[in-house]
Amino acid sequence: METIDINQALPHISKLLERASAGEEIVITKNNRPMVKLVSPQTLSTRPPLFGCDRDLIAMSDDFDEPLEDFQDYQ
Q1: In this structure, which long-range contacts are made by residues 1-10, counting pairs with CB atoms below 8 Å and at least 24 apart in sequence?
Q2: Per-residue pLDDT reduced to its tens digit, 19-53
Q3: Under a CB-based contact definition with an 8 Å cutoff, are residues 24 and 49 in contact?
Q4: pTM of model > 0.70
Q5: Domain map of the chain by residue range?
Q6: 1-43 under CATH 3.40.1620.10, yes or no
């Protein structure tokens, strides 16, 4: 992660944006205090995989689709 003062960053903002879009993190400071962090939106997305993410968390019994005893009268 690179840190750069705002006065030095402004003339080179297009190059800094290109570097950030490539995955680099750049912090722009003002008076030695962090002001802005440039990051690419693609690097922020860490969505878990859709299929298989609950493997071993959910279990279905072998008799799941068997008729329930409580409803024997309705058959």
Answers
A1: 1/25, 1/26, 1/27, 2/26, 2/27, 3/27, 3/28, 3/29, 3/34, 4/28, 4/29, 5/29, 5/30, 6/30, 6/35
A2: 998 889 999 999 999 999 999 887 555 676 778 77
A3: no
A4: no
A5: 1-43
A6: yes
